[in-house]
Amino acid sequence: MAKSKMRIKGRFFMMILILVGFIALVVIVANALKKTGEIEFGSLGADLEVNAAIIRDEKVIMSEPYEKITFDVVEGETVNNDQVIAQLYKRGYQDETMVTLLNLQKQIFDYQMQLLGGQAPQELVDLNNSIDEVEKQIRAVSRGQSKLDMLDLEQTLKDLETQRTALMLSIVTPDTTLTQLYSDLKSQQNVMSGWKRDIKNTSGTGIVSFYFDGYEQVLSVNKLSTINSALVKNVVNGGNTAKNADSTSEVPLYRIINNTHWFIAFVTSSSDPMRLAEGEQYSVLFQNYSDQQFTATARASQVSEKSVVNILEFNTDIGKLIGTRTVAATISKSAQGLVVPLKAIEIVAGVPGINISYGDSVLRVEVDILAQSENKAVIRAKNAADNLTAGMKYLKP
């Protein structure tokens, strides 16, 4: 009887050992499965809210320091090559020189009217009435009684006076006195020409602007690769103003802007998988400006230890944003492709990637995030040589 009991005990312990081994195997397999997953195929879409800096495709025209400047065009006007933008007066110029010239012009006009003997043609009457009206509008603006653009009014007045001068030369026959006045005017104009010079546009067709915020030299389309996160954050946090660098040799005169080519830049954390994928298109809505959906293409991001500078390129009319430096934007993207959980994406040296299991070996594949939701992302291999397909197993960090 004792021997029989011993055999039952042995079988019992053998069954226990088998059961424990099976449980251990299940646990090992379960733990292994928890650490891996399969790449799926699907689609995702989400919005990204950012504060961005606007980078215009523009050329800043510089000049030596000057005493005075008068403009022939108004802010926001489209100008062409060789068009006169302004007259620049050298340092040392005194307004008395201009006063003398203006007095001579008035004296000539009064004498011309005297020679006409009050027989002014209707064309002259109309021009005089128009000049009187514009002068009245200028006085109203200077008193704060009108919101018309002063520069626009001054340009209109200049054009009307030029028309009147040409008309008077054609209808008035000069006598000896008027001939001498013409000679005096020519001499005074020569004096003026020694003090001033015309500024002609040599930068092609574009929108002209006379306003500067100090970021024009650093936020340039020619310096996209040098724009860093500190600069973008400073622009966004500082709003639309900046201090101009002191210069004793040159000062900015005006800008010529290509209104159909521009960029925005914004910063994301390098620890966040989401950043723009180079070459991908995104929909952009600028809050507080319009309901228009813009389409933009992502340029290469600038990745540093802690931050990523994302850049979007636009090839459409900038519209109301032409005078703005910072803007709140909603960036949208929907994509279809390889889907993994966000937790499967590991950031190494600022670059997202996933670890693919190949039997007993593991290969890290750097990826671009095309779109993401709260817990998943659509990805693609960053390098075309890396092969990623649905069904591949990845390791969870």
What attributes characterize this protein structure?
397 residues, alpha+beta, three-stranded antiparallel sheet
Average pLDDT number: 86
Alpha-beta classification: alpha+beta
For the report, how would you describe the main beta sheet? 6 strands, antiparallel, barrel
Taking the alpha carbons of the first and last residues, their distance comes to 58 Å
Fraction of helical residues: 25-40%
Give structural notes:
With 397 residues, this protein is α+β, with helices and mostly antiparallel strands. It has helices at residues 2-34, 95-116, 122-142, 150-171, 176-195, 229-238, and strands spanning 36-38, 40-63, 68-71, 78-79, 84-89, 196-200, 206-209, 251-269, 281-286, 293-298, 302-303, 307-314, 326-341, 346-348, 351-358, 361-372, 376-381, 393-395. The strands form two sheets. It has a six-stranded antiparallel beta barrel. Strands 3-5-6 form a three-stranded antiparallel beta sheet. Strand 9 and strand 10 (293-298) form a beta hairpin. The model is unreliable at 1-6, 21-34 and 242-247 (pLDDT under 50).
Q: What topology emerges from the helices and strands here?
A:
Blueprint (H helix, E strand, L loop, with lengths): L1 H33 L1 E3 L1 E24 L4 E4 L6 E2 L4 E6 L5 H22 L5 H21 L7 H22 L4 H20 E5 L5 E4 L19 H10 L12 E19 L11 E6 L6 E6 L3 E2 L3 E8 L11 E16 L4 E3 L2 E8 L2 E12 L3 E6 L11 E3 L2
Antiparallel strand pairs: 1-18, 2-8, 2-13, 3-5, 4-7, 5-6, 7-8, 8-12, 9-10, 9-13, 10-12, 11-12, 13-17, 14-15, 15-16, 15-18, 16-17
Helix pairs in contact: 2-5, 3-4
